[in-house]
Write a structure and sequence with these properties.
The protein is mainly alpha-helical and about 280 residues long. The protein folds into 2 domains: about 1-45; about 50-275, MetI-like (MetI-like fold, Orthogonal Bundle). The protein contains 12 helices and no strands. The chain has helices at about 1-45, 50, 65-95, 100-115, 120-135, 140-160, 165-175, 180-190, 190-205, 210-215, 235-240, 245-275. Helix 1 crosses helix 12 (about 245-275), helix 4 (about 100-115) crosses helix 6 and helix 6 runs antiparallel to helix 9. It is globular.
Length: about 280
């Protein structure tokens, strides 16, 4: 009996040791990436980054004002599209269509879109929207990013609503509440922090996407807020500047990468703090 116990104990220790070793490798790689990003990104941060537009090739100075504003507009409209569609679809799957064939088909398509490469979605929007309208635009970029974000919101919303106990729904039905009120005012409110987290995960998923924007919004060296025209954005600017032979452009690419990292980090921390006592 003692030998069996000792063998299991050693197997457990070996398993924990290998797990800790794998975790250490992952943490070292993550810290290496963050150290490189922060060291080179902070060195390129200055006030001109937010007040000047992207410079011409071979020139000094300049900033990322046009790319920051363009990314903000594209991201804003993409989330305005993806959030209501994703939440309503998640409510339907969890509350109305648990066993229907249409719900099964919707879940299947959601899983496909979750695993689809972003460049494929970019090409789809290019063929559907850009090629038919005759030009790149911020609207096309928002549509492409929304198609990436929607399945994330759908899956998260559905999973959160399935965690709500049936007794809560039955209590709402018992006092005469219709199903739509139960779905929106009871079950959805009970998991609002989880749903918001899903929306933030979708936002983080699309914040740094480059391939879809290359085929839809493209880029613009000048400042523009017209969504019907090609629009500057941080991911494409980072992609183009990071591969350039100009040191000034490379420094701007590092600064832009740091801004995206800060955006995702700040949004996640902020919402966690806000909803910590409201879940």
């Amino acid at each position: 009996m003692m030998s069996i116990y000792s063998r299991r104990l050693w197997i457990n220790r070996i398993g924990i040791g290998l797990s800790m070793l794998a975790m250490s490798f992952g943490l070292v790689a993550l810290l290496w990436i963050l150290w490189t990003l922060f060291s080179k990104g902070f060195a390129a941060l200055n006030w001109d980054l937010f007040t000047q537009d992207t410079p011409a090739p071979g020139t000094e100075g300049g900033g990322l004002r046009n790319a920051i504003v363009g990314s903000g507009l594209i991201l804003l409209f993409s989330m305005l599209i993806a959030t209501p569609i994703g939440i309503l679809a998640g409510i339907y799957l969890a509350e109305y269509g648990r066993i229907s064939k249409f719900a099964s088909f919707t879940r299947f398509m959601t899983d496909i879109m979750l695993s689809a490469p972003s460049i494929v979605i970019g090409l789809f929007v290019y063929a559907l929207f850009v090629a038919t309208t005759g030009g790149f635009s911020g609207w096309a970029g928002s549509l492409a990013l929304a198609l990436i974000a929607i399945p994330v919101v759908v899956r998260t919303t559905e999973n959160m609503l399935k965690l709500v106990p049936s007794s809560l729904r039955e209590a709402a039905f018992a006092i005469g509440a219709p199903r739509w009120q139960v779905s929106l005012k009871v079950t959805l409110r009970a998991v609002k922090s989880g749903v918001v987290t899903g929306v933030l995960l979708a936002m983080a998923r699309i914040t740094g996407e480059t391939a879809p924007l290359l085929f839809t919004a493209l880029n613009n060296q000048f400042f523009s807020t017209k969504m019907s025209e090609p629009m500057a954005n941080l991911p494409v600017a980072i992609f183009q500047f990071g591969l350039s032979p100009y040191d000034n452009w490379v420094n701007l690419a590092w600064a832009g990468s740091l801004l995206i990292a800060f955006l995702v980090l700040a949004v996640n921390i902020g919402v966690r703090v806000i909803f910590r006592h409201k879940a």
